[in-house]
């Protein structure tokens, strides 16, 4: 399975929870902390992210950046003789 991670800009997140609902891995939740604007912001709660990008697509504030590991190559190594 491909692994990914997200970076959420807590300063601009308004805690709308759209990303939390959109995450098929249930890896996001609202932080118990508040940002400077008084909103509880979303955060990655455990390392189950697959890099599917659903959270970033639904974020109205564009506060989420998704990082995904490269797919492993399925080509088999051919030995030269």
Keywords:
single chain, 12% helix, elongated
By secondary-structure content and strand pairing, the structural class works out as alpha+beta
Helix residue percentage: 10-25%
Q: Major sheet: size, sense and barrel closure?
A: 2 strands, antiparallel
The H/E string reads: EHEEHE
The global form is elongated
Distance between the termini: 33 Å
* Rg calculated over all Cα atoms: 16 Å
Give the amount of beta strand, in percent.
Answer: 25-35%
Question: How many separate helices?
Answer: 2
Give the overall average pLDDT: 91
Number of strands: 4
Strand order of the largest sheet: 1-4
Describe this structure in words.
- The chain is α+β, with helices and mostly antiparallel strands.
- The protein has two helices and four strands.
- The protein has helices spanning 18-22, 54-58; strands at residues 4-8, 28-34, 40-44, 64-68.
- A two-stranded antiparallel ribbon has the order 1-4. Strands 2-3 form a two-stranded antiparallel ribbon.
- The chain starts with a strand and ends in a 13-residue tail after the last strand.
- The model has no long low-confidence stretch (mean pLDDT 91).
């Amino acid at each position: 399975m491909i692994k990914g991670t997200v970076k959420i800009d807590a300063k601009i997140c308004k805690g709308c929870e759209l990303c939390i609902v959109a995450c098929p891995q249930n890896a996001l939740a609202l932080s118990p902390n508040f940002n400077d604007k008084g909103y509880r912001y979303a955060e990655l709660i455990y390392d189950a992210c697959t890099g599917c990008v659903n959270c970033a697509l639904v974020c109205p504030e564009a506060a989420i950046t998704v990082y995904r590991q490269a797919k492993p190559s399925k080509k088999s190594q051919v030995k030269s003789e």
